[in-house]
Write a structure and sequence with these properties.
Belongs to the 5'-nucleotidase family. The protein is an alpha/beta fold. The chain contains 17 helices and 30 strands. The longest helix has 18 residues. The protein starts with 8 loop residues before the first helix and ends with a strand.
Amino acid sequence: MTSPSGPSRRQVLAVAAAAAAAPLIAATPARATGAHHPRTWDLTLLGTSDTHGNVYNWDYYRDAEYDDSKQNDIGVAKLATLINQIRAERRGKATLVLDAGDTIQGTPLATFYAKQEPITSTGEKHPMARAMNIIDYDAVTLGNHEFNYGLPLLDLWIRQLGFPALAANAVNARTGKPAFTPYVIKKVSLGFAAPTLRVGILGLTNPGVAIWDRGNVEGKLRFDDMIATAAKYVPIMRQRGADIILISAHGGDSGTSSYGPELPNENPVALIAEQVPGIDAILFGHAHNEVVQRFVTNKQTGRQVLLSEPSKWGQRLTRMDFNLAREHGRWAITRSSATMLNTNTVVEDPKVLAAVRAQHKKTVAYVNQVVARATVEMSTVESRYKDTPILDFINHVQAETVTTALAGTQYADLPVLSQASPFSRTAVFPAGDVKIRDVAGLYVFDNTLEAVVLTGAEVRAYLEYSAKYFVTLAPGAPVDPEQISDPSVPDYNYDALSGVDYDIDIAKPVGQRITRLVLAGTDTPVADDAQFVVAVNNYRRSGGGNFPGIVKTQVYNEQQEIRQLLIDWAQAKGTIDPADFFQPNWRLVREGVPVF
């Protein structure tokens, strides 16, 4: 990342000299049967995405090897083994390795080297730079979570990489010039007597950064539409000699956005393939889905564009295979396909493990520090559909922090509400010692605390919007807690509020579900013109989830990380006792009858 004044000399040179300086990758040609068929060659693209700070196959929240119900494994060390195996099997044939972003956030390992011992202070190499440099990627695209820790840390991480970091649609807000390397053109050798293949690789990041990390990028970076940016750069790359065009995009393929229509589309990958001619394949991420192989027909050319998304956290590796031939003096892809490899089939690469071992051990030691003792076990298992003590713990700390900060201000006499989401379905505070990893498992995102003023009418609208999380169930219909939520709404976009008491009637249609809304501990209905301070995380306040009424000027914003506030509160108290904070204030009903 450059300073706001413009791209660095390194980044300018990276664009200008990409074709000349890119390493050669040898390939062995394959001959088609029959003299009348042209000679063909092949190219393989290996793709990763959304690794989110996972290097080891390790669950820092459980302090154990990672496991889930589908026996998935995770981590860059596992990816490295698969990539090395394929490189060895191909015996020098053309093989490129790309990543589609969201790399430096998501685990206590990544957080430790961004917050506890930030690489910007220590000068230490980031664990994800260490791991990815051993794999020797050809390029990485910046994901939206790359911006979570601010531009200085992102800039340093990019400089620690041994390969380009791409983001064509991230633009310097002052100069209008690219803030990062937009693309590279790599020369690929296809063997004896074969002309060199020039592979153009375009990187596109997610425009939602402008909302989700507004505090880090506002006034510094602009995030342009991914479709328009592809339409701009693909012809440029062709003019500069690219024989084929690959895109590494941090955006899903659903065509929808989580934040509404005010910014460019969050998940436009299929639309890019459909609307922009000249693209051969797109590796994509962001949605955390496993899309093995999807073909989208370009409306202008009629050609099919290959798309693939390799799940999340290093669980999968995309493999795209292309057959190429010379047609009328030019390279053409005659066949393309994609498969998906599962990292649970291999062991971790020892070189990657060794490179990050000391940082991994330091992180494990940190998250196993005891912060307090819990009087009883508290779990999030039921937090999506019941008011639970563990979610009230978050709301209590947030409300208390904001109340203290606003003492003596014009907002001091307003009731303080608080918002929390069930980020994890498995987080537990055990009875007895509660460790940092337990708190981190409850609050898995690096959100900061803010507060705004809402009217009673806005609070009701907010709760109505949140209540769309639940499916509609008629009175008397069977209730399965595992099927009670709409699968199109992620858990992190369901909010429970403390400070008011309310019923959510899931027998009623969306928009008409808040049937009781009263001041906490009373039977007094909340008046439309009443005013409340609402403690809220920065993701939600900046527009994440597209909740109504919440995007407004903050009355509190001290850039305090919520996870750390929870840890600090627990350490100061020494004891986590639901009697200190649990106030059951919301419930699911059907025609007034509680569901649970």
